[in-house]
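Retro notes, item 3 of 5
We never archived the inputs for the iron/sulfur cluster complex last cycle. Fixing that now. Sequence and ligand:
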Amino acid sequence: MERSLTDPATLVRRWRLPDASLADISAASDRFALKLPEHLARVLGGAAASDPLVRQFLPSADEIVEREGFVSDPVGDAHVQRVPGLLQKYRGRALVVATAACPVHCRYCFRREYPYADASAASRWPEVVASLREDPSITEVILSGGDPLSLSNAVLARMVGALEDVASLTRLRIHTRFPTTSPSRVDDGLLEALTRTRFAPVVVVLHVNHARELAGDAADAVRRLRGTGAVLLCQSVLLRGVNDDEDTLAALSERLGALGVVPYYLHLLDRVRGAGHFEVPESEGVALVRGLTERLPGYLVPKLVREVAGEGSKTLISLAPR
Ligand code: SF4
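Structure as it came back at the time:
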């Protein structure tokens, strides 16, 4: 992570982008910093700005445009904190904002403006564990962030160990973008920790939006994770210019299936400030998923969902004609 590319001028030079693009990249990065891991900086170098992978990670002038309805906290994280760093939106499950750090900064991230300094679990761990212990109705804990695999194996092991001591917890889920963006993170220590915990099989939810993210080293990382016996799911975001056509979504599902990963959710965009140019209307999402339903087996068709602040579950979007 220390070798991540974070300086717009270095990116422009290394990717041989037009000099004129530096001002826009810098302006967008001032709002949400540029961050690209070495793996992606290498793999994507030379690709066009419109490439579906580059588009997810390259800061752009579109992020500066203010659009009505796009806000800093579109999913209402601020209203569901049990203690700083522990969010509970749904019955029986709680989400730990384990760290502020991510392997990459996705330009459409709904937590682009999350106040990590005040509201992450890193410095409040005893309070987080105490809060989980106090409420035995919570049986599943989700390590999220940021990306929990930003933490070292030693820190992760301490966290998981403390969670194992909370008798009412029966399931552990990890949300991560590391395997596809920085695959070397899936190392032997991590694999051993996933196998050894009393929560095994751990549920690992990958975040992948395009089949090309699952090539080479990334595919190997996913296979290594699968070797631990973890349950592997994928959540994707429907993004304009990235995966907003049926062939691309079908290819993603096929690729996930080939690697033993279940395509679980296709999220409509959370309307966070700076991400309006990625939005695909719900009606278009419905048509796309209907098309997938007709060409793929049911287990390769993700559920189309939207997160609505204050609701007791994700909102499943009906595919029935209106
Ligand atoms: S890895 Fe996840 S939390 Fe981090 S920027 Fe991307 S979408 Fe947001």
